[in-house]
């Protein structure tokens, strides 16, 4: 069995203006404690949902609309060997799904590339370097960096570093780099003639509201 979380009606109250509490913050408007789920693990979220309480919380976008698996304690099988195999498989389901909740490699499988028809010589190009991190200063691996309006693009390495080569004389008046990663807000940075390095921090959308739990007794499809 698994379930998914969603927030049908997001709350528009300002999280920063709420009163700090034990598990998050207290909203004086709705007179409820808003639990901060953004730092909780999948196991901790499952435990809270299984208590059956209505939960008003603050969630990252990647925590919503994905399957959370509930392990079956005593599966009814006639043969002990089958039961053991099923238990092992069920124990593996959640970590596999956790990996699937990460950005798909197929989405980022293209390496840095330059449109062959518009490739500039080394003398007519400039290299822009930098680092991409999240709001906790963790490096983001495989974030995409693109010169707006072109096919010139590259990906960050495991340390969040990148290097992108762009024409010194682009076809557009404004030279803008796009930084993007799944579940994070797109960031646009305009360059000037002196720019040689750009370090950016990508922000992940946060949703606040009372969560709805949708149960499904069938295994989630891969």
Automatic annotation (TrEMBL):
Entries under InterPro entries matching the protein: CarboxyPept-like_regulatory (IPR008969)
Name this polypeptide is given: Uncharacterized protein
Organism whose genome encodes this protein: Leeuwenhoekiella blandensis (strain CECT 7118 / CCUG 51940 / KCTC 22103 / MED217) (Flavobacterium sp. (strain MED217))
